[in-house]
Design goal:
It contains 19 helices and 20 strands. It is of the alpha/beta class.
């Protein structure tokens, strides 16, 4: 590969720029630069050639036109191995550019900050993506850096053996990253113009996974600018496809509470959830719901894991524990469980409702997209159509049951007592079947369902669902309502002495 002799630097994000430019000059690499980038470098005593010296034109139209010129793009796109390109470059006095360091105007940041329409439009970069595309196309001759996160490896390679570290594999990886960055940028712009009627899919590869749901399926993990949560692995084996699915489900469930709560997820469904004054007690109660199903499960708690909780977690075989933090004592105690994955979760937004995330699923006929189920309700939005009102204890358990049911696969039936789940029926084709499963699992785990509260994610179409819940021991029921047979269901509840709450909102989860 030819030695680097000339670089173009034009960046919006100036993180790491000065050390990078200093290293380039230390290797006698000429720096061509634009606008604010050139001004910063000169203020740091770094020699630069300003872009108008190369193009023969000043920056024009309020900065909209700077680099769009044959002397710039010819220097990038001219093929070093093609004699005709070299003759034309010489004829027009176009000098090669060997390195392009460019990142884009902060379009998405401008959108998120609620800028005026024209201000947002001015943050649509034209020259930057064009330069990056051109450099990526010419990757055999030109290196392209679009992200300050790439500088460290570049500088390490620059320092190694007079830049012979810039091999074909490295150049190809930079080109792939560059085209992906341009794609994400363009899709963000397209999504903004499309508004709510369009979908913009853009993501960068975070890592390849060992396999998907099953060993014969390949899988990858992608992230994008709208990723709402940050998962940081602190110990244990590499996170698997199923770990990530269950971990995400566990965290979405645990975010329903501000008070201490713990949730255990298995195959996408909760098998135990509880709230209490402490995370230790909440976890004990969650585990007691269905300790058999909890084997090999994924646990999430919405507060720090301390030494006492770590001791409890270490007693059971778990795949993953997610928490906002782990104390040093907890990490020390859990380190003995070498395969246990500890994941620190950081939320980039205060709640799911504040996230711009769209839920995407593929089907054979294309894509399905929907907003996340982040709706919140307060008790004063609910109605009680039965003769009997819930007691204060029943109200508390109804609220817990309703939050959990939202995260259980339909048809969902959830029994709660004392702030903890004691029976969960998930994914059955009949709501009565789900109620039977919940009662059976509760009894198998040794729970007394008497005076419990039960939630149904969808309305009861017939009285038999309420009758089954009451037979199991429930004295209070919460459901959306809205069936043409609501009165029949209400009459059954009154006959059984069951208090019933209508929410007016369902939470199907397929």
């Amino acid at each position: 590969m030819t030695r680097l002799a000339r670089a173009l630097l034009s960046v919006s994000n100036k993180e790491g720029l000065v050390p990078l430019a200093g290293a380039l000059r230390a290797h006698d690499i000429e720096i061509v630069s634009t606008g604010g980038t050139a001004a910063l470098l000169k203020s740091e005593g770094i020699a630069v050639t300003e872009i108008d010296t190369v193009t023969g034109f000043p920056e024009m139209l309020g900065g909209r036109v700077r680099t769009l010129h044959p002397n710039v793009f010819g220097g990038i796109l001219g093929r070093r191995s093609l004699a005709s390109d070299q003759r034309e470059m010489a004829q027009h006095e176009i000098r090669p550019i060997d390195l392009v360091v460019v990142n884009f105007y902060p379009f998405e940041e401008s959108v998120r900050s609620g800028g005026e329409r024209q201000s947002i439009i001015e943050k649509i970069d034209i020259g930057g993506p064009s330069l990056v595309r051109a450099a990526a196309k010419s990757h055999e001759d030109v290196l392209v850096l679009h992200d300050p996160g790439q500088y460290a490896e570049f500088l390490a390679r620059l320092a190694a053996e007079d830049a012979r570290g810039f091999d074909r594999e490295y150049r190809m990886s930079l080109a792939a990253d560059a085209f992906a960055a341009v794609t994400r940028y363009d899709q963000a712009i397209a999504g903004w113009f499309a508004g709510e009627s369009g979908i913009a899919l853009s993501a960068r590869l975070r890592q390849s996974l060992r396999y998907g749901e099953n060993p014969h399926q390949s899988a990858k993990w992608y992230e994008d600018e709208k990723t709402r949560l940050s998962f940081t692995s602190l110990q244990g084996k590499e996170l698997s496809y199923n770990n990530l699915l269950d971990g995400d489900a566990a965290w979405e469930l645990i975010e329903e509470w501000k008070e201490p709560a713990a949730a255990i997820i298995k195959h996408g469904n909760p098998c135990g959830v509880a709230t209490d004054a402490s995370h230790v007690v909440a976890y004990e109660k969650a585990l007691a719901c269905d300790p058999v199903s909890a084997f090999g499960g994924v646990v999430a708690v919405n507060g720090p894991v301390d030494g006492a909780l770590a001791d409890l977690l270490a007693k059971h075989f778990l795949e993953v524990v997610l928490a906002p933090s782990f104390t040093a004592e907890a990490e020390t105690r859990l380190r003995k469980k070498k395969n246990l994955r500890l994941v620190q979760v950081t939320s980039k937004t205060a709640s799911r409702a504040e996230s711009s995330r769209v839920m995407i699923r593929t089907i054979g006929a294309g894509y399905l997209a929907q907003d996340p189920d982040s709706a919140k309700q307060s008790r004063d939005e609910w109605t009680v159509p039965t003769k009997r009102q819930p007691t204060p204890e029943e109200w508390r358990d109804l609220e817990v049951a309703w939050k959990v049911a939202k995260h259980v696969r339909s048809n969902a039936i959830v029994f709660v007592k004392g702030g903890a789940t004691i029976g969960i029926g998930a994914g059955q084709m009949s709501r009565v079947d789900s109620a039977e499963v919940a009662v059976r699992k509760g009894a198998t785990a040794g729970h007394d369902l008497t005076n419990s509260a039960v939630a149904s994610d969808g309305f009861f179409p017939f009285a038999d669902g309420v009758e089954q819940a009451a037979k199991g021991g429930a004295t209070a029921v919460i459901q959306p309502g809205g069936s043409i047979r609501d009165q029949e269901v209400i009459d059954a509840a009154d006959r059984l002495g069951v208090a019933m709450v209508f929410t007016g909102m369902r939470h199907f989860r397929h």
